[in-house]
Amino acid sequence: MNIIKRVKSPSPKFFKVLRNIGLVLAAVGGTILAAPVALPVAITTIGGYVAVAGGIISAISQLTTTKEDVITTQ
Question: Helix, strand, coil: what percent of the chain each, to 5?
Answer without folding.
Answer: 75, 0, 25
